[in-house]
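User: Fold this; tokens only.

Assistant: Input:
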Amino acid sequence: MKYDCSEKDISFPPWYDPVSERIILTPSAFAQEHLLYVQETGRLKLIEARHKTSRNKLPSYLLVSVISGAGTLEYEGQIYPLSAGQGFFIDCRKPHRYYSSISEPWELRWVHFNGENAEQYYLIFKSRSGPVIRLLHKNATDRLLSELTLINRRQSLDTELQNSSILTQLLTLLLVRDIGGVSDIMKEIRLYIREHYMEKITLDVLADKFLISKYHLSREFKKCFGETVVQYITALRASHAKHLLRFTQMGMNDISEACGYCDQNYFTRRFSKTEGCTPSEYRKLWHGK
């Protein structure tokens, strides 16, 4: 990784507090191909509210934490007020603009990043909420953003690996931030599936039991947990099947029934699609010689 700015950025205008810092980075070929990588990170603190940023078609994802003050984000045709304790996560290829409040000059920590699975993280995040969020793990988020600035200022042979690890931690915090906001009925449905996945479960069965539209159920389950009801049931059944394949001598027909499948061929097809091998091949691979 090439480090393009070794000192505090002299390009900051005079209405920026001297503590402001920007580090611009060029990732190595390895990082671009295999890792989440940092493009720019830093801290911005205003003395006067004269900060405005407007971009479009920038191949980058931006995560911002508002430390203090207030401001505004304009993104995908919507206007979002921002205040301390909030943050935003956006795809910078889309038109966007953000700027500080005149009466409350803001302080931000941020990271521009891209790389392996960056888009997938963003799409999962977007499916759950809008770009602006209340940072429930704010202390941890700000600590990790500060750590990014620190390790990239110092540089070492493993800085890119550390960057990728910290970015993964940051994105994980964003994705688990709102688990407390999952409705009670969605939690009950998920628990019911965990306890009854070996039985015949369909959207119609769940809708009747929980007195909810199956279309609403399907949409909300995916929004809350990042996967469909069918995907969740399939994963639970696959895990149970793998346990039986490894630690019992049960035949394939008995295993398929124990996992909630009434047809062994269908069980084999579902297992093969999930694991990339048939149940028999899986058993042989894990048993070894």
